[in-house]
From TrEMBL:
Compartments where found: Cell membrane; Membrane
Gene giving rise to this polypeptide: corA
Endpoints of the signal sequence: none
UniProt protein name: Magnesium transport protein CorA
Family: Belongs to the CorA metal ion transporter (MIT) (TC 1.A.35) family.
Amino acid sequence: MIRVMGMTRDHQVLTDLPLERIKDGQFVWTWVDLDAPTSEEAEVLASFFHFHPLAIEDCLHVLQRPKMDYYDDFQFLVLHAIDENTLNTVEVDLFIGDDCLVSFHQQRLDEMDEAWNSMLKRAHDRKVWVHGPYSAAYMVIDSLVDHYFPCVYGIEDELDELESKGSRESVEQLMNQVFDLRSRLLKLRRTIVPMRDLMYRILNSQHVQGDKEPRAYYSDIYDHLLKLSEMIDADREMTADLRDSYISLNSNRMNGIMKTLTVITTVFMPLTLIAGIYGMNFVDMPELKWKYGYFAVLGLMAGLSGWMILWFSKRGWFK
């Protein structure tokens, strides 16, 4: 689908325009959004707009790293949206000219719809009207970044829940959840950090904005990305601490089990020795003919076991 928005010289916003009308001189600037276009619709990038072949190639061959390229009459941005369910990235490409913004994405995105509707509401604002394509590009980027926050907040909620239920689940289950969270955080980091670097480049570029007004808006997006990257780093550190804690807890449990087994084995070793001696079946063993021999040996075993347990307790083996 190709949708077109145009701002006329008398500050009227027109939508659902034929693509050919954007060049009739009636509009101060226009926004053309290629929303999950067919191959025939994607051809307009070359046949109608005459964009550079390298930029068109980057649009059609996903996924590119977030970047910004300069051409003679437009700037080309590669951005990333995030699927909140899978955390997979979706590429969004922007062609920013002096009087036109062209956005291209190969699947439908709520972020783009929000930016489109926001532009319709604010298009009459003089600041938005003056800066035109750069204002629309800002709304697109801002909408993409705003949708990063629920993904990060969701992982933080899971971390808090995981930290609180540490004693109610097995260490193996907890470790699996920790490694799953670390994997998802790594996915987010691979998207957010390149976007942060891109915004830093935009802020320090004279090609995208020439005065302080757009710079302030892009600086706000950069601050959001900086906050997100810091949150992700903090969450990764927390998962590392949880992982180390669970490993230590598991080692402590194993040490407790080994201590218990060692005590049991140590107590039964002399008892096994006594039983082995009297189980050798020699003929000349005086104790075998003694009337109270059986009870005496049992008493010896019980007394020896009690003494050993008492001795281990005094040495702190059961603490």
